[in-house]
Automatic annotation (TrEMBL):
<protein>
    <recommendedName>
        <fullName>ABC transporter domain-containing protein</fullName>
    </recommendedName>
</protein>
<feature type="domain" description="ABC transporter">
    <location>
        <begin position="2"/>
        <end position="233"/>
    </location>
</feature>
<dbReference type="InterPro" id="IPR052156">
    <property type="entry name" value="BCAA_Transport_ATP-bd_LivF"/>
</dbReference>
<dbReference type="GO" id="GO:0015658">
    <property type="term" value="F:branched-chain amino acid transmembrane transporter activity"/>
</dbReference>
<keyword id="KW-0029">Amino-acid transport</keyword>
<keyword id="KW-0813">Transport</keyword>
<dbReference type="GO" id="GO:0016887">
    <property type="term" value="F:ATP hydrolysis activity"/>
</dbReference>
<dbReference type="InterPro" id="IPR003593">
    <property type="entry name" value="AAA+_ATPase"/>
</dbReference>
<keyword id="KW-0547">Nucleotide-binding</keyword>
<dbReference type="InterPro" id="IPR027417">
    <property type="entry name" value="P-loop_NTPase"/>
</dbReference>
<comment type="similarity">
    <text>Belongs to the ABC transporter superfamily.</text>
</comment>
<keyword id="KW-0067">ATP-binding</keyword>
<dbReference type="Pfam" id="PF00005">
    <property type="entry name" value="ABC_tran"/>
</dbReference>
<dbReference type="InterPro" id="IPR003439">
    <property type="entry name" value="ABC_transporter-like_ATP-bd"/>
</dbReference>
<dbReference type="GO" id="GO:0015807">
    <property type="term" value="P:L-amino acid transport"/>
</dbReference>
<dbReference type="GO" id="GO:0005524">
    <property type="term" value="F:ATP binding"/>
</dbReference>
<dbReference type="InterPro" id="IPR030660">
    <property type="entry name" value="ABC_branched_ATPase_LivF/BraG"/>
</dbReference>
């Protein structure tokens, strides 16, 4: 579904991503794990069209997307939930969800709102509340709900567990699995390697901009290298 080939990304003289290749098959949860600064966010932003690659190709459903504008990429079926959620403050919960549907061509959105209220009942209770006054976990749910309103076939999640209490992390990861079951493919970027690999069909380990290991979620969880470097021994 998504194929990244020989991708490199620079910020001026700094090379953040080095000749990275990987793929995401339809229906999978794929986790990309790595320490701070490994290049995870840069890869997601490049898929979304927010950063330009210096080399390589990104193919989505058979079409090259690496030169497309971000809104075209959303319209084609990829939606990103950014690190730190970035909900729109000054807008209500409902208005934030409406923004997610902004690029849709169909107007048949009611059942999608209903699905989101089913998944995130707390959002339904807070529809008229300013998004910036939600708790961190609630903002994460809103950011995910907003991304789902564009009806993506591929959902990109950037560190959904960041800054959340363990109970919220568990809930968010359950919801990610539910999203997969309902047919959306997921590419997940995480520092919380244990959670990310435990729900992943497959995973990749990124170190200083390069992929150094790959395997099924289970294989990586059991790998001595992963245990030592990312799971606390
Ligand atoms: P984190 O988990 O801390 O967000 P990450 O794996 O997502 O880390 P990136 O944010 O992709 O890593 O950063 C990769 C490298 O690129 C880092 O060395 C970072 O300092 C650098 N970098 C990221 N954004 C910029 C920028 N706008 N300008 C210059 N360098 C940048």
């Amino acid at each position: 579904m998504l194929k990244i080939e020989n991708l490199s990304v620079h910020y001026g003289m700094i090379q953040a991503v080095r000749d990275v290749s990987f793929e995401v098959n339809q229906g999978e949860i794929v986790s990309l794990i790595g320490a701070n600064g490994a290049g995870k966010t840069t890869i997601l932003r490049t898929i979304s069209g927010l950063n330009q690659p210096s080399q390589g190709t990104i193919t989505f459903e058979g079409q090259p997307i690496q030169k497309k504008a971000p809104r075209k990429i959303v319209a084609q079926g990829i939606s990103q939930v950014p690190e730190g959620r970035h909900v729109f403050s000054g807008l209500t919960v409902l208005e934030n969800l409406e923004m997610g549907a902004y690029l849709r061509k169909d107007s048949d959105t009611q059942k999608d709102y209903d699905h989101i209220y089913e998944k995130f009942p707390i959002l339904k209770e807070r529809l008229s509340q300013d998004a910036s006054t939600l708790s961190g976990g609630e903002q994460q749910m809103l950011a995910m709900g907003r991304a789902l309103m564009s009806k993506p076939r591929l959902l990109l999640l950037d560190e959904p567990s960041m800054g959340l209490a363990p109970i919220f992390i568990k809930e968010i990861f359950n919801i990610i699995q539910e999203i997969q079951k309902q047919g959306t493919t997921v590419l997940l970027i995480e520092q919380n390697a244990k959670m990310a690999l435990s729900i992943a069909d497959r995973g990749y380990v990124l170190e200083t901009g390069k992929i150094v290991l790959s395997g099924t979620g289970k294989e990586l969880l059991e790998s001595e290298e992963v245990k030592k470097a990312y799971l606390g021994g």
